[in-house]
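Troubleshooting: if your tokenizer reports a length mismatch, compare your output against this known-good record of 49 residues.
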Amino acid sequence: MIMKRSEASWIEKNFPNTTMVDIWEGLHFVQEDNPHMTGEELARWYDSI
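Known-good structure output:
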């Protein structure tokens, strides 16, 4: 999801069960700019539920 840092901070503060991961900057499809980290973080999240 693409959003401003202030919006992400608000979500993190108000929805404590949300997992936030900074995958750095992307051009358009951020999951394609850093596919390995995206996959690793999704796997880590899935294993935690």
